[in-house]
Specification:
The structure is a single chain. By secondary structure, the chain is an alpha/beta fold. Helix content is 40%, strand content 21%. It has a five-stranded mixed sheet with strand order 4-3-5-12-6, with helices on both faces. A three-stranded antiparallel sheet has the order 10-7-11, with helices on one face. Helix 7 (201-213) links the parallel strand 8 and strand 9. Helix 1 (3-15) crosses helix 2 and helix 5 crosses helix 9. The chain is rod-shaped and about 105 Å long. It starts with a helix and ends with a helix. The mean pLDDT is 92.
């Protein structure tokens, strides 16, 4: 049995007339009759009562088969559409890793635009450090990530989508909060809140480079993994933190941000993915990123 048998059968069942069905199918009437006979022979039942050589009526088995044939063709059409949309990246799942500062800068705009263009793609978001995202990409737990370069894995593809300077976060009652900009040298004796280097080598090293411009190595009073935690500890008066400027969008009671007098290193945010394993959904996501932020 082939799909054409089903289509031929449906045409005859709807027209109840071989000549009209043949005309509708743009084939001759004798081959159509032959195909219907083949179908009946394969099923082992009569699907039509032949009133005349051309006019017919459905048997009880024919009526049942007609409903099933409708469902089969509808399911086939649905399957074709789903397959085509999957191939175009219009449906599926996209697992996105991101460093916490990205949620205060480029990520919301990108996600909003992607969801608007591809509402049937399921977005799964995971807040991860740069190092954790590299491992997650290797383990195929995420498809794309938003990270701070450089990356240790040279098999990953990445493109810079944002550059920003560094600023100082400190609690509101801190004596330095009355100044702006603040010199790096004035931070030499301050307790710092910082994340472990292995979680984000690029940002960590640039913060250290900036401190070295002030001729000191920061005194790390507390380590924290996520930027929200670092900012929370600063707001609690546990120390100061040098952070990317986009963190100004994260406001806390008792917290202020101040510009740094020195020219600070630029912090890059990059989108990263496995180019050799690009899915159609990943390609569409990268297109959206390129539309919003030419890269």
């Amino acid at each position: 049995m082939e799909l054409r048998h089903l289509r031929y059968f449906i045409a005859v069942a709807e027209e109840l007339h071989f000549s009209r069905a043949a005309e509708r199918l743009h084939i001759a009437q004798p081959p159509l009759s032959q195909q219907i006979h083949q179908l009946e022979a394969e099923l082992g039942v009569e699907l039509f009562h032949r009133k005349t050589k051309r006019q017919v009526q459905l048997t009880e088995a024919g009526r049942v088969f007609l409903q099933e044939a409708y469902q089969l063709l509808a399911h086939l059409e649905s399957t074709i559409q789903v397959t085509q949309r999957t191939g175009r990246g219009e449906i599926g799942q996209l697992r996105v890793g991101f460093i916490s500062p990205a949620i205060y800068s480029v990520l919301p705009v990108i996600l909003q635009e992607f969801r608007q263009q591809f509402p049937d793609v399921e977005l799964v978001l995971q807040e991860l450090t740069t190092a954790e995202q590299e491992q997650a990409l290797r383990d195929r737990r995420i498809h794309v990530g938003f990270v701070y370069p450089p990356l240790e894995d040279d098999e990953l593809s990445y493109l810079c989508i944002q550059q920003e300077c560094l600023i100082l976060a400190l609690y509101q009652s801190h004596p330095l909060a009355q100044q702006e900009p603040i010199t790096v040298e004035s931070l030499a004796n301050e307790p710092f809140i910082l994340f472990p280097r292995h979680l984000g080598i690029g940002l960590y090293d640039k913060i250290m480079d900036l401190c070295q411009q002030g001729n000191f190595t920061p005194k790390i009073a507390q380590e924290a993994i996520q930027m929200q935690t670092i900012i929370g500890l600063v707001a609690a008066g546990m120390g100061v933190a040098i952070v990317p400027s986009s963190l100004q969008n994260l406001q806390r009671t008792g917290l202020v941000y101040r510009a740094i007098a020195h020219q600070t290193p630029l912090i890059e945010t990059a989108i990263v993915w496995r180019e050799k394993e690009e899915t159609p959904v990943v390609r569409q996501f990268l297109k959206v990123v390129n539309q919003l932020i030419p890269i």
